[in-house]
Design a protein that fits this description.
The chain has 234 residues and is α/β, with parallel strands linked by helices. Helix content is 33%, strand content 17%. A five-stranded parallel sheet has the order 3-2-1-4-5, with helices on both faces.
């Protein structure tokens, strides 16, 4: 079977579970290291002709990360496209199983281990309220109905903007600082927040720098994500 992945998280999931199936991946697919597959552009601007030239039996995609116009072009050319929708941890587990089954693979052990790791989390203490920027210039934060927000909630971190009308609202910095948060959570993707780039904008708040892969990726990283994120959020 020949598979093209347009989503870094799904690339890692397929590559770890079924080495050799992937013939094409995006430029942003960084895991696992040394992946031997053709690069076909970005998640938002894949080279559709290059994807078709690889003659895939299946293209795996995501409703948020990929553009419908590109997926429609692939379908119009006769390519099977599986589109995932993942906004909660539970949906991630379901969709990962669906993707791997479509690739002709049984449920992998790492997926069971990931479910067990999250199920074993102790009940969260009194939640801390956090703002969670994902970009600056302009400032954008996690809003409603996001996968990362669901993970944080399970770890006892309440997103201040979880009820916002938008999923990734643009909020002025002064409003973020006046939002009544106890904490600012700064992932290193999609914007690369670091100790020297981000915390200084929130002088009154403790800052938790987190590995964005463990906060936003759904795949084998979910096995270690509870442990890694809890340590970063302490």
């Amino acid at each position: 079977m020949r598979v093209v992945s347009l989503v870094p998280s799904l690339t890692e999931a397929v590559a770890v579970t079924a080495p050799g199936l992937l013939v094409g991946v995006t430029d942003w697919c960084t895991h696992p290291a040394g992946l031997a597959a053709a690069r076909i552009g970005g998640t938002k601007n894949p080279d559709v002709a290059a994807v078709l030239a690889l003659r895939p039996d299946l293209v795996v995609a995501n409703e948020e990360e990929n553009r419908e116009a590109d997926l429609a072009a692939l379908r119009a050319a006769g390519t099977e496209v599986l589109v995932t929708g993942i906004r909660t941890l539970g949906q991630a587990f379901e969709e990962l199983g669906r993707v791997l089954a479509a690739c002709g693979r049984p449920r992998p052990r790492w997926l069971d281990e990931a479910e067990a790791a999250w199920a074993a989390l102790p009940p969260p203490r009194a939640p801390r309220r956090a703002v969670v920027p994902v970009w600056r210039r302009p400032w954008m934060v996690l809003g409603r109905d996001t996968f990362a927000g669901d993970l944080l909630a399970r770890l006892g971190v309440e997103n201040v903007y979880a009820d916002h009308a938008e999923r990734y609202p643009r909020i002025p910095l002064d409003a973020l600082n006046a939002a009544g948060a106890d904490l600012v959570v700064l992932p290193d993707e999609p914007y690369r927040f670091t100790a020297d780039d981000g915390p200084e904008a929130f002088p009154a708040l403790p800052a938790a720098l987190v590995d964005g892969r463990f906060l936003t990726w759904y795949g084998p990283s979910l096995v270690r994500a509870p442990e890694v994120l809890r340590a970063a959020l302490r």
